[in-house]
Amino acid sequence: MKSARGLVCAGLTILCVTVSGQAPQIPTAIPGQAPPVDMSGYWSPVLHEDLTERGPGSEIADYGGFPLNEAGRLWALSYDPSRVTLRHHQCEAYLAPYQMRALGNFRIWEEREEHTQRLVAIHIWAQTTEGHRIVWMDGRPHPPAWAPHTFRGFSTGQFVRNTLVVRTTHMKNGALRRGNGVPQSDQATLTEFFVRHDDHLTNVTVVTDPVFLSEPMVRSNDFSRQPVDPGAWLYACDDGEQILDRPKDYVPHYVFGKQPFAREFAARYKLPLAASLLGGVTMYPELATRLRAVTNVEADALLAPIGGRAPETSKGVDPEPHDGSIHIWPVRDNVYMLVGDGGNIVVQTGDQGAFVVDTGEGKLSEKVLAAIRTLTNKPVQFIANTNFRREHTGGNAALGAAGQDPSLPGSFFLVQSPRGVTGFFDNPLTHATMMAHVNVQVRMQAAGAPAGAVPADTYLDDRRRKFHNGDAIELFHQANAVTDGDSLVHFRRADVIVAGDIFTTTQYPVIDVKSGGSVQGLIAALNEILERTVYRHQGEGGTYIVPGHGYLADEHEVVEYRDMVVIVRDRIKALIEAGATLQQVKAARVTADYDTQFGANSGPWTTDMFIEAVYTSLKAAPAKR
Question: How far is CA 388 from CA 360, 486, 532, in A?
Answer without folding.
Answer: 11, 8, 24
